[in-house]
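Pasting as-is:
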Amino acid sequence: MHGDHDAFAALATGVVDQCYALARMILRDVDRAEDAVQETLVKVWRELPRLRDPDRFDAWLRRLLVNACMDQGRTVRRTESVKLIPLTLSAGSSLESAVADRELVDRGLRRIPVDQRVVLVLHHYVGLSHAEIAESLGLPLGTVKSRIRYAMEAMRATLEADERGTSGAMIAEAGS
C-alpha cells in the first residue's frame, strides 16, 4: 500500500467507527477518544508498510489504539463527559434504574487505572478472550488475567462504596 492514499482512506473508513467506540469505552471521554483515534490512524499510516503479517492487522490496530488511549489516560486529567442513555430498556427495567446502573458502572470505570480499564473493556465489551487480549496488547497471558481480576475487584469495591454512601445518605435523610 506504500503511500496509496485511496487505499488508506478505504481502510481507515472501515475501522474508524470501531476504533472510536473502543477508545470511548476505555477513556470515558469524547474528546480524548477522538484524539486517540486520530493518533492511531496517523501511526497506522506511518507504520503500515512495516506490518509483516496482514492477517494480524486487527490485533496490531487494537494495540496501537490501546497504546494511544493509555497515553491519553496518562497525560490528561479526568474531565466530565456527556453520558448517553440507552434508548431501549430490557423487560421489567425502568429508565431510572437503567440510568442509575449505567452511571454506577461509568463511575467505577473512571476510578480504576487505565491499564485495568483497557482489559475490562476488551474482555467484557468487545468480547475478546484472555489470549486475544494478550496478543493484542503484547502482554503475557498471566498479566492479562491478573489485570482483569484486579479490575473486577476494584470495580466491586467502588460499587460497594457507592452503595454504602447512598445507604448512609438515605439513613441520614430519614433521621432528619
